[in-house]
Amino acid sequence: MSYKSGRHFLQIPGPSPVPDRILRAMDYPTIDHRGPEFAELGKEVLAGIKRMFKTESPVVIYPASGTGAWEAALVNTLSAGDKVLMCETGQFATLWHELATKLGLEVEFIPGDWRHGADPEAIAARLQADTDRQIKAVCVVHNETSTGVTSRIAEVRQAIDGTRHPALFMVDTISGLASADYRHDEWGVDVTVSGSQKGLMLPPGISFNALSDKALKAAEQATLPKSYWDWQPMLASNATGYFPYTPATNLLYGLKEAIGMLEEEGLEQVLARHQRHAEATRRAVRAWGLEVLCLNEQEHSPVLTTVLLPEGQDADQLRKVILDRFDMSLGAGLGKLKGRVFRIGHLGDINDLTLLGTLSGVEMGLACAGVPHQSGGVQAAMAYLSDTGA
Ligand code: PLP
């Protein structure tokens, strides 16, 4: 492949572009992970990551992708044959369901249409019916990266509380952390799963479990086999800033920098920026005469927008045209949405002009690929961005 001038536009909903400051922070010799210098770094990132989850409880950091942290949440808290309630919000909920089933858990899947978030009332009804308390955990994906739909986690918590059911509450915010509003403690989540390569702006390679006292208690009784994922040796080593096995040292340099950047901008400002860019994107999509996949106004993702193409149009062909012509990667339709949708990532290290460049690429791509649409989407986004913001 020959050199392409300018920056590639990586507008998939994660991994998101890694800012230069983070790349520079990682470009530093790997240090002794058992030496004194490391403990300072370990303590700093273990404290900082708690602020990202809005929790006072411990956060475990694994050298693994998000899938590993999914598995860790389950094997630390549950035993073979335990019943788990999950909600079919999209492809990632489906994959978590598959993983849980492979671990020997008995998973009940509340069906969904991939255009709405988890339904708090359906969860409450299922828990209410579980009079002998067989369900040990409720697992929900907060920001469904395959659909661009968020689940209302605080409302799910209220629904669980309303039934007085003792099930653990586990949430995947792999693509929501540091880009969509998330409050581990306030929302009473027992285990939150997240990853590095989305709102934290890091490369893939580390992932997280944020815990609660209730989750730690459940871990004392849980008998699913675990070794690498075991929280106990992690927490014991983390107490002095270390890890029980070799951590992803250079990614931790990056994490320290990422937390610093997010706090310099202000986490609340970061979240507001994502909301504003998501709104501008939806305005563009509607001006093109295309459909946003998410059907509930309260559940639009601030992280990505999924666009449904008219019947008979091939979204993968459109993405190919946009990649070839404009050097921009957009997210593919996953699972049963394959070929039907494309996903615009607007997360992480972006500003108004990055977003407008992205939307320009989409609008030009729609024309080049012959997808029926109206022009003026970029114009609509520009009008919104220039009327709002600082
Ligand atoms: N859950 C969600 C919501 C995701 O977006 C992803 C990845 O994109 C995963 C889980 C799986 O994480 P990973 O691919 O890092 O293993």
Automatic annotation (TrEMBL):
Keywords: Aminotransferase, Pyridoxal phosphate, Transferase. It comes from Oceanisphaera sediminis. GO terms for molecular function: transaminase activity. Coiled coil: none annotated. This is Aminotransferase class V-fold PLP-dependent enzyme. InterPro entries: Aminotrans_V_dom, PyrdxlP-dep_Trfase, PyrdxlP-dep_Trfase_major, PyrdxlP-dep_Trfase_small, SP_NH2Trfase/AEP_transaminase. Residues 31-309 form the Aminotransferase class V domain. CDD domains: AGAT_like. Its cofactor is pyridoxal 5'-phosphate. Pfam families: Aminotran_5. Belongs to the class-V pyridoxal-phosphate-dependent aminotransferase family.
